[in-house]
Amino acid sequence: MKKYLNLILLLLATSGAFGFAQTSQPAIIEDFKPSTLNQPGKEYPMVNSQGYVRFRIQAPLAQSVTVSLGLGGRGGTKLTKAADSTWVGTTEGPMDEGFHYYHLNIDGGIFNDPGALNFYGSIRWESGIEIPAHDQDFYALKDVPHGNVQQILFPSKSTGTSRRAFVYTPPSYYKDQNKRYPVLYLQHGWGEDETAWSNQGHANLILDNLIAEGKIKPFIIVMTYGMTNEVKFGKIREFDIKPFQTVLVNELIPFVDANFQTISDQKHRAMAGLSMGGMETKTITLANLDKFAYIGLFSGGTFSMEDVNNTPGFKEKVKLTFVSFGSRELENRRAGFGGGDPKVNAEALKQANINSVFYVSPETAHEFLSWRRSLREFAPLLFKD
Amino acid sequence: MKKYLNLILLLLATSGAFGFAQTSQPAIIEDFKPSTLNQPGKEYPMVNSQGYVRFRIQAPLAQSVTVSLGLGGRGGTKLTKAADSTWVGTTEGPMDEGFHYYHLNIDGGIFNDPGALNFYGSIRWESGIEIPAHDQDFYALKDVPHGNVQQILFPSKSTGTSRRAFVYTPPSYYKDQNKRYPVLYLQHGWGEDETAWSNQGHANLILDNLIAEGKIKPFIIVMTYGMTNEVKFGKIREFDIKPFQTVLVNELIPFVDANFQTISDQKHRAMAGLSMGGMETKTITLANLDKFAYIGLFSGGTFSMEDVNNTPGFKEKVKLTFVSFGSRELENRRAGFGGGDPKVNAEALKQANINSVFYVSPETAHEFLSWRRSLREFAPLLFKD
Q1: In this complex, is the C-beta atom of B231 within 8 Å of any C-beta atom belonging to chain A?
Q2: Interface predicted TM-score (ipTM)
Q3: Rounded Cα distance, B130 and B121, in Å
Q4: Domains B2-13+138-381 and B26-95+98-131 alike in fold
Q5: CB distance from B108 to chain A under 8 Å?
Q6: A150 in contact with B at a CB cutoff of 8 Å?
Q7: Which residues of B touch A231 (CB under 8 A)?
Q8: Best residue in A43, A84, A102, A111 for a mutation probing chain B (most B CBs within 10 Å)
Q9: Each residue of B347-383: pLDDT tens digit?
């Protein structure tokens, strides 16, 4: 477990949204448009067709305004004061496609960009921006039947509170009250919460679109908060999985099975998570193979033959292991992986006749486009029996 | 309609969160605690038992930091730089109980307080703070059965998009798939959106608690965005109700009736709204009395005998008119009301044998505690037939 936590810390430390090519940058094309994640009516931040981001901030009396988005470890993007007293600037190079968290530093304090919507990450509501991806169609809001995402409050005796989860029910759910569905429990990463997979991940739209294209059979997704203790920076090593395991396995799963049209046997239940959520997924599923048949780790670890051999019943009970990373994560950490090279591991499992899938998201880092794509790849492999 | 819009503008202009007594303020009691609406783990802003709010902002190089919360029209609360370079300050007097929007002005720019959660109001995500109310129990998260709030995306041909709504289903909803429920369509105010009644209003918790106490029969609430055009400050006079009426009446209601366990006749459908949402409610219900039987205007207008006499079928079809205001709104506007004095109007309707209820929320302004209480008072009066 300790080794695993160190891996997650390494992932966090070596990740980053900063996929600049090392060569000289192309000339900036002046076709900037408001980011799709701007607050209603806000012009800035803007994104151009190459993935450059331009910022404009009102703070006429400020001494300095910088944006965390831009060059990893090199202080982000420094804005300069324009003639009209606004602070303006453009990232030094194009950003990776997909979603990025960011914030402003104004006179030494951290604030959000008033132009952008906020998303929970880094244990705070951060500003968010979206660089349109060439394959964004798979998570676009389209004119197809839509499932619903609903907030539930479930009783948790072990933590003495009502806890919140979000439940995605597929479009057909309300049409036929006798139909029952498999369930995927889907976990966010460290510093995020149960809002992440809908807001940043578009899990609901990904499922809507896969269902509309006939690529998957409909299933339910349940997303809840993956921690039970107060979260602070640098305290991840103190994280204890057991209280959350109790919440998930003993409280949430029975509540969902009692209140939704689920198929409640092991063969129709999956769990997946990103980053820290992958760590949680691995630990909880391996300790509860009577409850989960399909397991996905998105940028959050790997399954080795050691895991298989140390877990009684693994070969009989596990119907799928799915492990994915963003390509930039693999580039960054080529020298070694906690738990071994994930591609080599996945191949070893396949040789041992375990249904093992390994996926690499092209040109993305430890960020949500990697995880949206991972869900798109993972979903069609689920609930085959 | 024009007169009505002017009333709303007047309400917006004369409202405010600034219920200071005009006499000298009591000594500040040093029992400040983190606001219940702070982001996880954040200490500031803090609130004391008298309703004073204390702020602390990190921005060591800033020239000036003020908070919009505090004295209406007098520049809010000016923070001063402490020895540790943080900016600190306390409101000059106690704030009214309940929820208040606010923001920071840092060196001439508007930003949110990084310590507080954000809520959509004033057509931006604003910081929010909660002054514990003496009657907060009715909207508290308690150990009672909870209904769900779910996001739906419904097709809207008239606007060419999928539009979002939130649907509250009561706790019993999933237990009996043959049971059907009445529906309340509940609208937010100007500058807010479909998230307001859950996030700021706690409509779901208010219903959960009323149901648990046996004070109401369960019903469904539907909350959607009440505008179809781009919203800008000062443009409320250009607002045209017709496109939204088409969305609500021709698109959303049929979608909800097709996809939820509703009783879809006129006698089991209500509409209410706050501020601008009250204006919308009045206009849409009076034009569609074949669809709505119960009508609530929360700080958003009044029903006069002129309305009754000018609307064919009013007396036969309307089962309830409910009009409410915060007491400070009435104090502020004692000289006159657009549409006449709401209390006098309500009394006139009663005299004409119309089921007319008038409610005043004690010591609150044009703010969410007025509207939470209005919903608490309104809900038990609904769906009596």
Answers
A1: yes
A2: 0.83
A3: 15
A4: no
A5: yes
A6: yes
A7: 40-41
A8: A111
A9: 999 999 999 999 999 999 999 999 999 999 999 999 9
CB nearest B109 (choices: A57, A169, A174): A57
Q: How far is B50 from B31, CA to CA, in rounded Å? A: 9
Q: Going by CATH, does the domain composed of B26-95+98-131 fall within 2.60.40.10? A: yes
Task: Give me the DSSP letters along B139-184.
Answer: GS--SS---EEEEEEEEETTTTEEEEEEEEE-GGGGT-TT--B-EE
Q: What is the pLDDT of residue A351?
A: 97
- Put simply, the chain B residues between 261 and 320 with a CB less than 8 A from any chain A CB are none
pLDDT in tens, B81-90: 999 999 999 9
- pTM (predicted TM-score): 0.88
- The Cα of A300 is separated from the nearest Cα of chain B by a number of Å equal to 24
* Domains of chain B by residue range: 2-13+138-381, 26-95+98-131
- Asked if the C-beta of B63 comes within 8 angstroms of chain A's C-beta atoms, the answer is yes
CA nearest to B253, candidates B284, B231, B211: B284
> What does the alpha-carbon distance between residue A191 and residue B369 come to, in Å, rounded to a whole number?
32
Q: Which CATH code is given to the segment(s) B2-13+138-381?
A: 3.40.50.1820
Strand ranges for chain A from DSSP E = 33-34, 46-47, 53-58, 65-67, 77-78, 80-81, 86-90, 98-102, 104-106, 109-111, 118-121, 124-131, 148-156, 161-169, 183-187, 220-224, 269-274, 294-298, 320-326, 356-361
